[in-house]
Amino acid sequence: MVVVLLYVDDIILTGSNYDEVSRLQDEFSLHFEMKKLGELGTFLGLQIENFEKGLFVSQINYAKKLIDKFGMKGGKKSYTHLNVNPKLSRDEGTCLSDPRLYRAFVGSLIYLTITRSGIAYAVGVVSRYMQEPRKPHLEEDRDSTYLLPS
Description:
Blueprint: E1 2-7, E2 10-15, H1 18-31, E3 42-43, E4 46-51, E5 54-58, H2 60-69, H3 100-112, H4 120-127, E6 139-140, E7 145-146
């Protein structure tokens, strides 16, 4: 079995048969400019660790960059990502003056759900308001803990 993952100009070739993977690399290099970078370590913000029994995929560096980018250092840590019965409304509160930050944040969180499935529900809730985000959409109901700097 050989697996080919392609994203724009990045490609991963892997498989259970080393000779077949190597043959495919040689074939591709006849048609495309390629560099053999060796064992995969990072791909599209994912850290990949190879173990005898499989792979471990993480986005820890991506998550740390999000914390820095969106000014969340020193924020409250919580084991619950969001109140399970959020009282958010499409029309409540004032509209954000620039919704691009909210949209960028939610989009980044959607990508983070690849390895952090525990945040999928919360991300789904806040993504409902990307069309017209409002100030209450940035706050957690209970403690007014901000998801983004206001």
